[in-house]
Amino acid sequence: MEEFYKEAVRNIVNGSTGPEVANSDFESLLDFPQDDVIRALEHIFVESKESFEKSRVLDALSRLPGYDFVAFLVNQFDSANSRWQEAICRELGELKDQRAISKLTEVMLNHPEPDLRFIAVEQIEKIGNTEVISGLQNVVDNDTGEDFEGFPISDRANQAIESIRQRSR
Asked: What confidence score (pLDDT) does residue 3 get?
């Protein structure tokens, strides 16, 4: 039965074109038992090599009522390739969920790729509060990397600190 749901969910997801699931296709997903839909979508995301399919799966997961999308993204980060790690970082910032701060801070402080550290700083700026300033200050003081355009990560972290301080006043 589980294979039936995987195949049915895959067909629904791939019935849409582009990176998002059409509303009518998404509503079809809601006709199936939600636990089976979730397992199928998570499986498809992990196994798929097709970017649009993975994007549509993320879109569907983000719209499922009661689904812990933030936890899914955080759990998928380390096993994702750098392109999907970038997408996950951006999505975590867009969700504005404080639970994302820990993963974004880890990426900002420890990831070997400067572009991902830069993106993590940008996302932390969106959702962080004064508690993240010490981590950002660590980046200002110690990160000598630059993003792909040559912008220093430390300068971006300094801007984030100022932005967070302004917002918290």
From this structure: 82
Over residues 86-105, the pLDDT tens digits come to 999 999 999 989 999 999 99
Boundary residue ending a domain (67, 87, 118): 67
Q: List, for residues 14-27, the tens digit of each pLDDT value.
A: 888 888 999 999 99
Domain that holds residue 112: 74-169
Query: What's the token pair of residue 27?
Result: 């509503």
Within this chain, do residues 78 and 135 fall inside the same structural domain, yes or no?
yes
Secondary structure string (H, E, C) spanning 27-74: HHHCCCCHHHHHHHHHHHHHHCCCHHHHHHHHHHHHHCCCCCHHHHHH
pLDDT digits (tens, 9 = 90+) for 48-69: 999 999 999 999 999 999 999 9
Are residues 42 and 93 both part of a single domain? no
Residue pair 80/69 in contact by the 8 Å Cβ criterion: no
Q: Which of 88, 82, 87, 13 is nearest to 43 (CA)?
A: 13
Measure the CA–CA gap between 1 and 3, rounded to whole angstroms: 5
Give how many domains the chain has, as a whole number.
2
